[in-house]
Amino acid sequence: MMTINNYNFAGKKAIVRVDFNVPLDENGKITDDTRIRGALPTLKHILEAGGALIIMSHMGKPKGKVVAKYSLSQIVEAVSQALGTPVQFAEDCAKASEQAAALKAGEVLLLENLRFYAEEEGKPVGIDKEDPAYEEAKKAMKASQKEFAKTLASYADCYVNDAFGTAHRKHASTAVIADYFDADNKMLGFLMEKEVQAVDNILSNIKRPFTAIMGGSKVSTKIGIIENLMDKVDNLILCGGMTYTFMKAQGGQIGESICENDKLDLALEIMAQAKAKGVNLVLATDCVAGDSFSNDANTQIFPAKDIPAGWEGMDAGPESRKAFAEAIRGAKTILWNGPAGVFEFDTFSAGSKAIAEAIAEATDNGAYSLIGGGDSVACVNKFGMADRVSYISTGGGALLEAIEGKVLPGVAAIKG
Ligand code: AMP
User: Domain check: are 239 and 382 in the same one?
Assistant: First the structure.
């Protein structure tokens, strides 16, 4: 497989898929440029090696139409500043042949939002899935998606994918385009290489004990990853809102706590699976409950299985925090996805903080720790632990799918 370090970019035009889906305020100003910074090593490397850059990205969900608030024209200046060089802009990403052809070594062209074309995602718009004509429309869209990808490919000599956030999507710019380059002219960018390596550390290069912490609101959205991890981990901490589905399944009283009533059997199944596989399943034994869903709620500690009516379990209690920290501190490999409570409210953030602290401590002692998913990343940032973990993934859905063991289309398109 060609790598970005081995490729000779001198005199070549590189079309690079990045994830510049940055948040903007109402004036179109970038409020968090993490994603732009994340792509800089790849973009700068290509320029320094004598290449010309054609940068492409999506922003938001314009659903195949031109929507001004999702225009990438708003970030031209920021990209230019980050790269330290002027950036040209192509107002129509599918009609940029002339601008691309005119690019010289060291020059940069940013294409307008790919998702202004429905072909990027390749899903027919304006037709219901139930409509008898849907299948035909889908076929036609797949054909025009190929044409769209071919047009993008025609701008450049080589293709680099550095957009991990969309690597789980088989879109024109993330996967289909790769068909129009031979194996020697397509490669992963540095960010993608790092993300793929981080997942590999968790799935293949496991140092034991391995502790995974899965939190968040629901068990249903995490079930794929929980089942996959069951064969790999020594300790599995399941926390956050999903706790109460487990407590109710075991006959507990959970007051007003959130619960997926149709997942009670699933919760019992997970507990049985853990037992059969010798996995140490750590569930909360106590909780910090609130009398309303707010930061100003009155709080009280209850056993997680015995929460009175009028109270809602919103964070892990002190005994649970101790048990979580213990299972984390001794670990040599750690994966964390999803908070242990409603961490957005300081009143209910102690559980997530205890997890972040224990992970930082274990990492100081030589463990490999991977944090992924927007909320857990927000947690480590909130508690100032970001520098004390091994790797913070930029991918939400892509990371979860990779850890579930699924092959990411964006990676497969390059690796073959
Ligand atoms: P998810 O998107 O499934 O990863 O869930 C993240 C969200 O779960 C965060 O916004 C948390 O506030 C929320 N959460 C965590 N614990 C609880 C809980 N005990 N009750 C309600 N929401 C929770």
Answer: yes
Structural domain tally of the chain? 2
- Residue 29 carries which side chain, given as an amino acid letter? K
Pocket probe for ligand 1: among 213, 214, 217, the residue whose CB has the most ligand atoms within 8 Å is 217
Q: Computed from CA positions of residues 160, 167, 382, 319, in that sequence, does the dihedral angle turn out positive or negative? A: negative
Report the range of poorest mean pLDDT among 115-119, 185-189, 390-394. 390-394
Q: Residues 280, 160: one domain? A: no
Contact partners, residue 158, CB within 8 Å, separation at least 6 = 7, 9, 12, 13, 14, 15, 181, 185, 186, 187
In a domain, 408, yes or no: no
Report whether the peptide linkage leading into residue 209 is cis, meaning its omega lies within 30 degrees of zero. Answer: yes
CATH assignment of the domain containing 87: 3.40.50.1260
Q: What percent of the chain has pLDDT over 90?
A: 90
Q: What is the pLDDT of residue 34?
A: 86
Ligand 1 mutation pick, 292, 337, 342, 348, max ligand atoms within 8 A of CB: 342
- Number of DSSP helices (H) and strands (E) in the chain, helices first: 14, 17
Q: Helix 350-364 vs helix 374-382: angle between axes, to the nearest 10 degrees?
A: 80
What integer pLDDT is reported at residue 375 of this predicted model? 84
pLDDT in tens, 56-114: 999 999 999 999 999 999 999 999 999 999 999 999 999 999 999 999 999 999 999 99
Per-residue pLDDT of 278-307, as tens digits, reads 999 999 999 999 999 999 999 999 999 999
Tell me, yes or no, whether 1 lies in a domain.
no
Domain membership of residue 355 as a residue range: 206-403
Task: Name the token pair of 56.
Answer: 């492409």
Query: Could you tell me if the CB of 375 is within 6 A of ligand 1?
Result: yes
Q: 325 alpha carbon to ligand 1 midpoint, in Å?
A: 19
- Pair 379, 218: CB distance under 8 Å: no
Same domain? For 188 and 262 the reply is no
b or e along 273-294 (b: 16 or more beta carbons within 10 Å of the residue's beta carbon)?
bbeeeebebbbbbbbbbbeeee
Task: Specify the pLDDT at position 43.
Answer: 98
CA of 341 to the centre of ligand 1 (A): 6
